[in-house]
Amino acid sequence: MSDDWQDAAFSSRHMHNRRGSSNKSAKPFDVRKTFGSYSLKCSAWQKLDGVSIDNDAVLELYRLTENGEGVVGELALPGALRAAVVFVANRASLRRVVDEFEEEEKSEDGEEDEEDEEGEDGEHNRFETFEKNSFRSPKFWFRWNGVPAQSKSGKSGGDEEYETGLGYIVFAGNDCRKFKATISCSSLSWKDAPITGHKISGRSESDIPVTWGKGKMEM
């Protein structure tokens, strides 16, 4: 697959700082536009043995992470991968968000988390984090965590080997109706496998449970 669209997405960041009449009418990006259900197409998934095209591949995006830096969701490629996902505006933030999930998993028997007292100002700032992520094509890095079918089939008993992988997504516009993405998964021998998606329905912020890792830490 050509990476032209991905290269263009990266280069568009530089255009964000240019002054021009078009920027005057640009509106801040509302990350809540990403929330919803998306139907997916993925040729790498469709080529796998045992996969039925009658099964729907979907991406569900529910809410922001507690620290406001990421978007929490779930990815389902039936017969291949079911995973928790977190979308973040840049790689540094992605590492920070994922580290928090994994640190919580290591210390789940430790002290309870402090009460969140961010208030209305804090809530406003959570959404401000993403307002700069827009020049007509909002883009995110994402990390997934789940059990690939190939990995699961090779294990005996109830053992499940959780795996993580990286991806990148570019929405076609600030309304987040369509996107192009790539995903990597070592167990499936995927390296930047292309995915396209379109929104089936939007949603308000949802508290549907999503867990990360073998310790099933709530996201």
Automatic annotation (TrEMBL):
The lineage of its organism: Eukaryota, Fungi, Dikarya, Ascomycota, Pezizomycotina. It comes from Setomelanomma holmii. Residues 100-121 have a biased composition (Acidic residues). This is Uncharacterized protein. Residues 1-29, 99-128 are annotated as: Disordered. It comes from the Eukaryota.
